[in-house]
Amino acid sequence: MQGLISLRSSPCFLHSCPRSSNTKHLVSKPHCSLRKRSTSSLRSTLPSISLSLFGSGFFLGPLIDGLHSRVNLVVYQNGSIDIGPLHTNIWVPPLLGLFYCSVGLLQLFLDQRAPSKVPEGSLEKTAIALVTWIGFTLASIIGLCCPLAEIPIMKLFHLWYYPQANIEILGQGLVTWTTTCYFVYTPFLISLSRWLRSMITPANKSA
Predict the structure, then answer these.
(1) Which residue spans traverse the membrane (predicted)?
(2) Residues 6 or more apart from 35 whose CB is under 8 A from it?
């Protein structure tokens, strides 16, 4: 009986304690702080990541793209140059640098908005990036939009054309395999951007 009286006299028995609401606040605060920390981290490393992505596209992109010209899948016109065995166009390096930088930074921006923890970037996770819904969606959008973006470049500046075009859009010949190329290209850029961020961020913190 004495124990029952002591229970009734306790403050938590007479007044319900807001444990659940406090718990929610305690859980949400670390999530918000982590997101703010991630945002500030990306802003501080943005110039270095952008430069690295642009440089990767500028130098690595033409080497991969040069495979198409060697087998006559694409023919370069105005501005075509030969750099050793590589046959390319003078505008290809900056265009691919801009492509790498745009897709990579877009992926990092989407990673910040993701509700779950994003895996650290590594070159071994290129294929895994495609099976995630956000990676698949981004690859699909790029696979459809980038071939269409080539149309004004080819029509206005005559930088290249596809001799084996099997589809015509807005009076310009295209090949359907370019969609597949851009689609497969995207997971590589997703993984590359995450890998560069994981490498650059610790270096800035140590500095």
Answers:
(1) 45-64, 90-110, 130-154, 174-196
(2) 112
Q: Are 173 and 181 in contact (CB under 8 A)?
A: no
The strand pair at 86-89 and 172-174 is best described as unpaired
CA distance 103 to 131: 17
List the structure tokens of 147.
């071939």
Report how far residue 44's alpha carbon sits from residue 35's, in angstroms, rounded to the nearest whole number: 14
The tens digit of pLDDT for each residue in 110-153 reads 888 875 555 555 555 555 655 577 788 899 999 999 999 999 99
Which residue blocks in 71-176 are alpha helix, DSSP H? 92-113, 126-131, 133-157
Rounded CA gap, 106 and 12, in Å? 50
**Total residue count of the chain as it appears in this document:** 207
Paired with 89 in beta bridges are 80
Q: 18: helix, coil or strand?
A: coil
| Least confident residue range of 13-27, 76-90, 147-161, 169-183 | 13-27
H/E run at residue 75: strand 75-76
Element (H, E) at 14: helix 11-14
Q: Which residues, 6+ apart, have CB-to-CB distance to 180 below 8 Å? A: 143
Question: Based on the number of CB atoms within 10 Å of its own CB, is 42 exposed (0-12), middle (13-18) or buried (19 or more)?
Answer: middle
**Core vs surface per residue 175-187: b (16+ CB within 10 A) or e:** beebbebbbebbb
